[in-house]
Amino acid sequence: MSPGQQTTPPTARTTTGRTYRGADRRQRQDERRARLMEAGIETFGTIGYRNATVDRVCAAAGLTKRYFYESFDDSEELLLAVYGRVAEELHTRIVADAEAAAPDIEAQVRAALTALFRTIGDDPRLARIAFVEILAVSGTVDSAWQAVNTAFVDTILQLTQPYLDAADLSETDLEILATGVLGAVVLIAQRWILGERAQPIEALVSNAHTLVMAVVSRVAALD
Amino acid sequence: MSPGQQTTPPTARTTTGRTYRGADRRQRQDERRARLMEAGIETFGTIGYRNATVDRVCAAAGLTKRYFYESFDDSEELLLAVYGRVAEELHTRIVADAEAAAPDIEAQVRAALTALFRTIGDDPRLARIAFVEILAVSGTVDSAWQAVNTAFVDTILQLTQPYLDAADLSETDLEILATGVLGAVVLIAQRWILGERAQPIEALVSNAHTLVMAVVSRVAALD
DNA sequence: TGATATTGACACTGCGGCGTATCAGATGCA
DNA sequence: TGCATCTGATACGCCGCAGTGTCAATATCA
Question: What is the DSSP letter of B61?
C-alpha cells in the first residue's frame, strides 16, 4: 500500500504548489474549474452540446485545453457537472419558493411554477440544458436525467403528500401521476423556450397551475 | 430557364433506365429508399442518432453509401424522413382508435392512450426516435419536432372540442393546457422506455387516463 | 538576481467519419 | 454473344476534433 517512501518531502510539497497571482494552487484550480463550468453553461445552452467542442468551451472560458483536462476527463463529464448544477439550482429555487408559500397548496403550486418559469425565462440556457441538450447523449447521461426526474417526482409527491393521504392509490400509481405532472410542466417549458417565448409568463403559470390542481384535486377527492 | 436543350433524347431516356431483377429503375430506387428508412428506424432507435453513421445505416440496410446518397443528402435528412414516418404512424393509430371509440370521451381517451402505449411497447425504437433522439439535433430538426407537437396539440383540442365549448378559455390557454397534457403522456412514455418498462401497460393507461380526464373535467366544468 | 514553477499559445499525431471515385463482376438488351 | 448498364465492394482524399507535447514568456521565491 505504500511503495512510495517519504524520502523526498520537497517533491511531495510540489503537490501544494506555490501561490500565483495571490492564490494558491487549489484556489487557482477551483477558479479555472468554475470558469469552465460557466463556459459550459454558455456553450451547451446556446449552440448546444452537439456543436460544443472542447476548444470552443475553452475559448468561452478564456483558457486552453490544458486546463480543461485538468478538471474534466472529457466534454461529457463537463456536461454532467453542468447539468447537475443546473438541475440543483432549479430544484432549490422551486422548493424554496414552494415551501415559503406553505401551507396553502394552491399558493405552493403557483409559487413553484412561477419560480420555474421565471428562472428559465431569465436564463433560457438553463432550460435548454435541463430539458433538451441532456437527452440522447449517452447511457451515462440518460441515467443522470432519470435520476433528476426521479428527484423531481419525489419532490412533487412530498409537496402534495398532505393532500394525497386519503387517496387509495399505490406508490406506483402516484409515481406515474407525478411523472405526468412533471412532464406537463416540462413540455410547456420546452415549447416556450424553443418557440420565441410568445406567451407571457403569467399565462404559463396560470394554465400549468390549472392542470396541476386539476390532477391533485381529482386524486385527493378519489373518484 | 432552359439552358439545356432537348438535343439528346437517348440520353434523356437514361433517366428511365433499364429493368433489373424484374423491377424498373424507379421501383428499385424506391425499394432501396424503403430499406434505408427501415435501417434508419433500426439504427436511430437502438444505438441512437448520435452513434449512427452513414456506414452503419447502410450496413443495416444491406446497401452501400452510394445508394444512401442516391436518396438522401445526409443522415439528418434520413432522420427527418424517419421521424416523419414514425410520428405519422403514431398519430394515425391514436386518432383511428380514438375515433372508433367515439362519442364517449372517457373511452376515447382510453383508446388513444392504449394505442400509444401498445405501439411503443411493441416497438420501443419508435418511442426512442419520436421522444428522445429527435431532440437537440439541429434547428431544422427542432422545427420538425415543434410541428409534430403542434399537430398533436391540435388533435387533442379537436378530440376534446365538444367538451370545451362551455369553457371561456382563450385559444392560447387551451393550447398551453393541451401542451401540458401531451407532455404528461410523453414523459410517462419516456421514463417507461428508458427504464426497463417496469410498469404494466394497464397502469400507464389508467394513470394517464386519470390525469387527462382530470384536466378535461376541470376545464369543462369551469371553476 | 537567478532558479523554478506556472501559464498560455500553438504544434502535432491519430482517429473516425463524410462524400466521391474507381473497378470488376453481374444483369439485361439487341 | 457482345455491348451497355447496374451493382457492390472498396479505395481515396479531406476535414474536424480529441488528447498530448513543446516552448517561450511570466510570476514567484530564495
Answer: H
